[in-house]
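Retro notes (design track)

What went well: tokenization of the new backbones is finally stable.
What didn't: we kept losing track of which sequence belonged to which structure.
Fix going forward: every design gets posted as structure first, then sequence, in one message. First example under the new rule, 157 residues:
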């Protein structure tokens, strides 16, 4: 399993989730045998993967991101007293509105299944991973849909 991400920590978060959720295929995280420097040299990376005996690879590649801003308005209620000595006098009911804002990052990704021994793409598609909860849940949805399609196309036994 290989996650091609611009930031190494994103790759290290995505690959274990890929191994976990693309469970119809045996898998390993690629960062254990392909470090980021080795990935820059295509020929060396190819030699390394071929030498390890892998016959296929699932690759998720980040092709873009977007940030969505969500607002969650809420109404608050309370009482205001008139000064420090207010508890000897009247209270004024007060209603006010506040808003929480949440920034959600969504990765646009390309998902591909490669035959390493035949050096060809067997299947490719596009999807989105919403990271507002966590990467794991987004990859779980992509993996379920991809594996269902692979089964229908006869790519899985």
């Amino acid at each position: 399993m290989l996650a091609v991400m611009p930031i190494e920590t994103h790759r290290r978060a995505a690959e274990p989730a890929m191994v976990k959720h693309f469970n119809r295929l045996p898998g390993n995280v690629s960062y254990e045998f392909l470090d980021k420097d080795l990935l820059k040299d295509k020929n060396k990376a190819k030699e390394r993967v071929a030498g390890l005996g892998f016959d296929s690879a699932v690759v998720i590649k980040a092709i873009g991101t977007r940030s969505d801003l969500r607002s969650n308005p809420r109404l608050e209620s309370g009482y205001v007293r008139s000064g420090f000595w207010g508890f000897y006098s009247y209270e004024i009911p007060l209603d006010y509105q506040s808003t929480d804002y949440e920034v959600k990052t969504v990765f646009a990704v390309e998902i591909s299944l490669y035959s390493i021994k035949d050096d060809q793409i067997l299947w490719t598609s596009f999807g989105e991973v919403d990271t507002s909860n966590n990467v794991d849940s987004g990859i779980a949805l992509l993996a379920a849909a991809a594996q269902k399609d692979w089964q229908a196309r006869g790519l899985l036994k």
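Added context from the reviewer: The chain has one domain: 2-66+105-152.
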